[in-house]
Amino acid sequence: MSIYESKNNNKLLDEALSIFMHGSKTSLLSFLNKLVTTSEAEEIAQEAYLKLYLLVKNKPSHHNYAELLQGLRPMLTLIAKNLALSAIRHKKVEDRYAESQLTLHSQVTAAECQVERNAEEQAITDNENCRLIVVINRLPPICRQVFIQRKLYGKSHQQIANILNISTKTVENHLTKGLVLCRKYMFEQLPSKHDEHVMSAKRMSKAAR
């Protein structure tokens, strides 16, 4: 095949693919949105079209690309589905890793809280740290991951968005939600007036000995 014929075939293929995408993208995105988020669906769809394009391009010369692409529409759906499932599996692995890191951090902090402190101020600080860990563990999974990445690891909104494959706006929403829930949960853990009186009486009794 001459260079001219090759360029002409590429042009025909590009035009056919553009028309094919226009007619199939809406239904493909609708299918993918049932499996992944909107932003993930868009990225997966683009990758699926690219794979289909390369598949057709590597085939022997075929002048009716529009007909060929229509015939490969079920394959496009299959490619997109496999990509979506792969993305889901990858995300689950990341979620499990984040959960394991949080659990490890919680266990270490909880163990440290069991160590007897000589200074009462240090004991109070440890207790507050333990309460904070308990509070963070109560947050919804994605909200918890965003909160940990931001508050414990100091990641930027964009870095968190890249790690979790979500938008920066979603990151901001989860951080706001996390702060609200943390305040709520911390308030719930505050001792009641009765408990405060009991603790105060115990401290006074201990001091009198």
From TrEMBL:
<dbReference type="GO" id="GO:0006352">
    <property type="term" value="P:DNA-templated transcription initiation"/>
</dbReference>
<keyword id="KW-0804">Transcription</keyword>
<dbReference type="GO" id="GO:0016987">
    <property type="term" value="F:sigma factor activity"/>
</dbReference>
<protein>
    <submittedName>
        <fullName>RNA polymerase sigma-70 factor, ECF subfamily</fullName>
    </submittedName>
</protein>
<dbReference type="InterPro" id="IPR036388">
    <property type="entry name" value="WH-like_DNA-bd_sf"/>
</dbReference>
<dbReference type="InterPro" id="IPR013324">
    <property type="entry name" value="RNA_pol_sigma_r3/r4-like"/>
</dbReference>
<feature type="domain" description="RNA polymerase sigma factor 70 region 4 type 2">
    <location>
        <begin position="133"/>
        <end position="180"/>
    </location>
</feature>
<keyword id="KW-0805">Transcription regulation</keyword>
<dbReference type="GO" id="GO:0003677">
    <property type="term" value="F:DNA binding"/>
</dbReference>
<dbReference type="InterPro" id="IPR013325">
    <property type="entry name" value="RNA_pol_sigma_r2"/>
</dbReference>
<dbReference type="InterPro" id="IPR014284">
    <property type="entry name" value="RNA_pol_sigma-70_dom"/>
</dbReference>
<dbReference type="InterPro" id="IPR039425">
    <property type="entry name" value="RNA_pol_sigma-70-like"/>
</dbReference>
<dbReference type="InterPro" id="IPR013249">
    <property type="entry name" value="RNA_pol_sigma70_r4_t2"/>
</dbReference>
<keyword id="KW-0238">DNA-binding</keyword>
<dbReference type="Pfam" id="PF08281">
    <property type="entry name" value="Sigma70_r4_2"/>
</dbReference>
<comment type="similarity">
    <text>Belongs to the sigma-70 factor family. ECF subfamily.</text>
</comment>
<keyword id="KW-0731">Sigma factor</keyword>
